[in-house]
Specification:
The chain contains 10 helices and 13 strands. With about 325 residues, it is an alpha/beta fold. The chain has a 7-stranded parallel β-sheet, sandwiched between helices. Helix 4 packs parallel to helix 5, helix 6 packs across helix 10 and helix 8 crosses helix 10. The longest helix is centred in the N-terminal third of the chain and has 21 residues. The structure holds uridine-5'-diphosphate-4-deoxy-4-fluoro-alpha-D-galactose. The site of uridine-5'-diphosphate-4-deoxy-4-fluoro-alpha-D-galactose (UFG) has 21 residues, from helix 6 and strand 8.
């Protein structure tokens, strides 16, 4: 089976590529390397330096004949999307329309899409299942929801099957240590904790310590990137066999507070990780936890590496390698 992974040189994309290769698929990566890196490419996968904003090139690549594509190419900073919505509309929505249209003209039957818990907005109940109302509170989440709706129509009108996988908080690195490219200027909690542990930052901020949670800091559902990657392969197999599109939430179903993450990282790395309480970050809900019951039922998916220690340890190993720490 041949799979095209668009955005396959990025943090999540490289783990997805590794998982498809491990399952014996023939993989081609298409990436513009704007945030992905050549370090995340594997010799066994073909690489095309290309951009989803170039529809002609996309059609050329897709016409090589693939059984499906995984689409992870997107801008993903929620805060930035509120300042530069035009960039997010162009890259995320227009870029996906290019992919969908190329898929139709190449008669590519399946698409796996990186969606996000950001489509739900502030939770009206927990855990968040697939039926939860969808009211994105940032433009980034809006783009992901619009793409889900586009895919529904392309299925209804043209029969393109899709799996939309709504990630909660992706974290961790390949537990076998095969992926070592770090994200530049990370905005997410665990990489920031690690940059602080590594001494790249003198200290870090805890955005709000007065939330109605067990220690006053925000609760999130961290899911290991190897577990996310495994869901992509299962989702592809599912839609390819059943000829039926699906949307699933993907999280570990366990809530971890910001303070718990920092404290456990201190214990595991032996580093002080100075952290000071700061103002709340606009748009942060107090608590986000997934129900992954549907992914478990439909895909037989189980989180295997999403416990806090594995999330922290697998990330710390990569920081140690990159910065020659002990
Ligand atoms: N946080 C800090 N200090 C930091 C960075 C983050 O206290 O320096 C806190 C945030 O306020 C939040 C928690 O850590 O409470 C997690 O923040 P992240 O920025 O790592 O992740 P978010 O929950 O904001 O968002 C992530 C993805 C989104 C996705 C969402 C789904 O970035 O794309 O998870 O749950 F939609």
């Amino acid at each position: 089976m041949k799979i095209l992974v668009i955005g396959g040189a990025g943090y999540i994309g490289s783990h997805v590529v590794r998982e498809f290769l491990d399952h014996g698929y023939t993989v081609t990566v298409l990436d513009n390397l704007s945030s992905g890196t050549r370090r995340n490419l594997f010799g066994e996968a073909a690489f095309v330096h290309g951009d989803i904003m170039h529809p002609v090139r996309l059609r050329e690549v897709m016409s090589e004949g693939f059984d499906g594509c995984v689409h992870l190419a997107a801008l993903k900073a929620a805060g930035e999307s509120m300042v530069s919505p035009e960039q997010y509309a162009e890259m995320n929505i227009a870029g996906t329309i290019n992919i969908l249209n190329a898929a139709l003209s190449a008669e590519m039957p399946n698409m796996i899409f990186s969606s996000s818990a950001a489509i739900f907005g502030s939770p009206q109940y927990l855990p968040i299942d697939e039926d939860h109302p969808k009211n994105p509170e940032n433009f980034y989440g809006f783009t992901k929801l619009e793409i889900e709706k586009l895919m529904e129509w392309y299925d209804r009108l043209k029969g393109l099957k899709y799996a939309s996988i709504r990630y909660f908080n992706a974290a961790g690195y390949d537990v076998q240590g095969r992926i070592n490219g770090l994200e530049m200027n990370p905005e997410n909690l665990l990489p920031i904790v690690m940059e602080t542990a590594s001494g790249l930052r003198k200290g870090m901020s805890i955005f709000g310590d007065d939330y109605p949670t067990r220690d006053g800091t925000c609760i999130r559902d961290y899911v290991h990137v190897n577990d996310l990657a495994a869901a992509h392969v299962s989702a592809f197999e599912h839609i390819n066999e059943m000829k039926q599109s699906i949307s699933v939430n993907l999280g570990s179903e366990t809530g971890v507070t910001v303070s718990e993450m920092i404290q456990r990282a201190r214990e595991m790395t032996g580093m002080p990780i100075p952290a000071a309480a700061a103002e709340r970050r606009p748009g942060d809900p107090a608590e986000l936890v997934a129900s992954s019951a549907k992914a478990k039922e439909l895909l037989g998916w189980e989180p295997r590496h999403s416990d806090l220690d594995t999330l922290i340890d697998s990330t710390w190993q990569v920081y140690c390698k990159n910065f020659s720490l002990t």
